[in-house]
From TrEMBL:
MF-aspect GO terms: ABC-type transporter activity; ATP binding; ATP hydrolysis activity
Protein's organism: Mycolicibacterium chlorophenolicum
Subunit details: Monomer. Homodimerizes in the presence of ATP. The complex is composed of two ATP-binding proteins (SugC), two transmembrane proteins (SugA and SugB) and a solute-binding protein (LpqY).
Protein name: Trehalose import ATP-binding protein SugC
Known function: Part of the ABC transporter complex LpqY-SugA-SugB-SugC, which is highly specific for uptake of trehalose. Involved in the recycling of extracellular trehalose released from trehalose-containing molecules synthesized by M.tuberculosis. Trehalose uptake is essential for virulence. Responsible for energy coupling to the transport system.
Reaction it catalyzes: alpha,alpha-trehalose(out) + ATP + H2O = alpha,alpha-trehalose(in) + ADP + phosphate + H(+)
Keyword Nucleotide-binding carried by entry: yes
This protein's UniProt keywords: ATP-binding, Cell membrane, Hydrolase, Membrane, Nucleotide-binding, Translocase, Transport
C-alpha cells in the first residue's frame, strides 16, 4: 500500500457509537419481531469488533441498520460526532462487504472494483485494485465476469470492493463463510493485516468463534437481540458474564454441571454429583447450601490418579488429538459427565478411575435460573 493511501485512511479513522439501538420488524398479518433490543457499543477509531452469536440473534439486522439498508426503530448511530441513523445509505461513508451486494454483470471484476473509484476520480485507483487483489489472492479473477464466479470467489470480490472504497467504517457480514478452510485462514490473516494498515473502524459479523477470536480486538457476543458481553477475546473467555457466553465461546465447550455451594470458615467449595466430591472455588458471594450451575472449561480441568481433593470420575472415552487428548469421564449422580483436556503425552483407558481437579479461580458459578455469573 502506498504511503499516501495509508495516510488518508489513518486520518479518517473514526469512532462508531451505537446507543440503545432497536429494530422491530412489523409486517402486516404477522407478529412484530424485535430483532435488536437496545444495543450499546462504543467502538474505537481503527478497532476491529466481531459481532458473534448464533443464527437469528440480530447480527445482520444490526449491520444493516448501521449501513442504512434497514430503518432504525429507535436509538442512535454515530460515526465520530456525526449522527447517521437518519441519513440515506449513500451519505453514511460506510463500506459494506455484503455478499448479496450486486456486481454489474457486464463489467469484469477489475472494472467492478474500479467503478466507484473512477467515478470519484480517486488517484492511483488501478494500483490500489492491483495491490488488494494481489493480497486477497484474486488476481486470476480480475478478467472474469461476475456470472462466472463461485460463491467463494464472489465473497472475495465483495471484500475487495469494500476495501478499495477506503471508507472510515467497514462492515462485513460473514465475509469468509464460503471459502474453503485453507483459503479462509489465509484471507482472514490478510484481512486483519489490511484492516490494520488502513485503520478502518471495522465490524465483522460471524457465527464462528474461531474467526471472531482470531480477528477481533474486541468481541460483542450476542443472543436474543442483546449484547451479552463486550470485551477482548481474553476477557470473554476468562471472565464470562453469564452462562450463555461461557457456553458459546470456547472449544471444546465448557462443562456445565449442577452443584451445591458449601462454605466453611470463609472458604467456598462446590459439591458436584452425589457424593462424588467437591472443588474449591474462588467465588465468595454465595451462601452455604445454594444450588448453582457450575462451569469448568475442559482446558482448566486436570486428571490425577484416584484419591485426594476433587471429583471422583471414571474415564468413559478417550480421544488422542494432535496437541492434546480429551477424556470424557462419568461422575456419579450427574448425567452430563465431564470433558477434560489432557496433555498430549498422556493416555487414558476406559474404566480408569481418576480424580478431576481445577484451580479455584477457574471454577465459575452461575445463577441456576438466570444464568448470570455469581462472583
Ligand atoms: N426483513 C425481516 N422481516 C422480519 N423479520 C426479520 C427480517 N430480517 C430478519 N428478521 C428476523 O430478525 C431476527 C434476527 O435476524 P438476523 O439479524 O438476520 O440475525 P443473524 O444475522 O444474527 O442470523 C430473526 O428472528 C429473523 O427471523
Ligand atoms: Mg446474518
Amino acid at each position: 500500500m502506498s504511503v499516501a493511501t495509508e495516510k488518508t485512511a489513518q486520518q479518517t479513522a473514526q469512532s462508531l457509537t451505537l446507543r440503545d439501538l432497536v429494530k422491530t420488524y412489523a409486517s402486516r398479518g404477522r407478529d412484530a419481531v424485535t430483532a435488536v433490543k437496545g444495543i450499546d457499543l462504543d467502538i474505537e477509531p481503527g478497532e476491529l469488533v466481531a459481532l458473534l452469536g448464533p443464527s437469528g440473534c440480530g447480527k445482520t439486522t444490526t449491520l444493516r441498520m448501521i449501513a442504512g439498508l434497514e430503518t432504525v426503530t429507535s436509538g442512535s448511530i454515530k460515526i465520530g460526532d456525526r449522527e447517521i441513523s437518519q441519513l440515506p445509505a449513500a451519505k453514511r461513508e460506510v463500506g459494506v462487504g455484503f455478499e448479496s451486494y450486486a456486481l454489474y454483470p457486464p463489467l469484469s471484476v477489475r472494472d467492478n472494483l474500479l467503478y466507484g473509484l473512477k467515478a470519484r476520480k480517486v488517484k492511483g485507483a488501478e494500483q490500489m485494485v492491483a495491490s488488494i487483489s494481489d493480497r486477497l489472492e484474486m488476481n486470476d479473477l480480475l478478467d472474469l465476469r461476475p456470472a462466472g464466479l463461485s460463491s467463494g470467489q464472489k465473497q472475495r470480490v465483495a471484500l475487495a470492493r469494500a476495501l478499495v472504497r477506503n471508507p472510515p467504517v467497514l462492515l462485513l457480514d460473514e465475509p469468509l463463510s464460503h471459502l474453503d478452510a485453507s483459503a479462509r485462514n489465509r484471507v482472514r490473516r490478510e484481512l486483519k493485516v489490511l484492516q490494520r494498515e488502513f485503520g478502518y473502524t471495522t465490524i465483522v459479523v460471524t457465527h464462528d468463534q474461531v474467526e471472531a477470536l482470531s480477528l477481533a480486538d474486541r468481541l460483542a457476543v450476542m443472543d436474543g437481540g442483546v449484547v451479552q458481553q463486550f470485551g477482548t477475546p481474553d476477557e470473554v473467555f476468562d471472565d464470562p458474564a453469564n452462562l450463555f457466553v461461557a457456553g458459546f465461546v470456547g472449544e471444546p465447550q465448557i462443562n456445565v454441571l449442577p452443584g451445591v455451594v458449601r462454605v466453611d470458615s470463609g472458604r467456598a467449595r462446590v459439591e458436584i454429583g452425589s457424593g462424588a466430591g467437591s472443588l474449591e472455588t474462588a467465588v465468595t458471594g454465595v451462601a452455604d447450601g445454594t444450588h448453582v450451575t457450575v462451569g469448568i472449561r475442559p482446558q482448566d480441568c486436570a486428571l490425577s490418579a484416584r484419591g485426594g481433593d476433587g471429583i471422583e470420575a471414571t474415564v468413559a472415552y478417550f480421544e488422542h488429538l494432535l496437541e492434546f487428548g480429551l477424556a470424557t469421564s462419568t461422575v456419579a449422580g450427574i448425567e452430563e459427565g465431564i470433558v477434560v483436556q489432557t496433555p498430549a503425552e498422556q493416555t487414558y483407558e476406559p474404566e480408569q478411575q481418576v480424580t478431576v481437579t481445577a484451580a479455584p479461580e477457574r471454577v465459575y458459578l452461575f445463577d441456576k435460573d438466570s444464568g448470570e455469573r455469581l462472583r
